[in-house]
Amino acid sequence: xxxxxxxxxxxxxxxxxxxxxxxxxxxxxxxxxxxxxxxxxxxxxxxxxxxxxxxxxxxxxxxxxxxxxxxxxxxxxxxxxxxxxxxxxxxxxxxxxxxxxxxxxxxxxxxxxxxxxxxxxxx
Length: 123
Prior knowledge:
Elements: H1 3-18, E1 23-30, H2 39-59, E2 63-70, E3 73-80, H3 83-96, E4 102-107, E5 118-122
Antiparallel strand pairs: 1-3, 1-4, 2-3, 4-5
């Protein structure tokens, strides 16, 4: 390997090590009546999402990535370098949503890595 190629390899390894591991916060709420919930249920979730997205952006702790309605529940997704910091910003708004049962999964690393630690919080 040439010195130039060796420098490029070390630069790539160093850059990969400097990038924070993406962590996630995934909230799960059971919707009344099954399916995708009522139009009012969806509006309530979307209003909460707008608020959380703004708070997360303002705090600089990651990004709110959206929702997935179906099967009588809604999943809400957020990603960033620190799942605990993300959850701290989102938790008050998530707790105010009226849908139960509800829980939040904090994932401290890549979703596809079976060794990634996780913590579940009941709301």
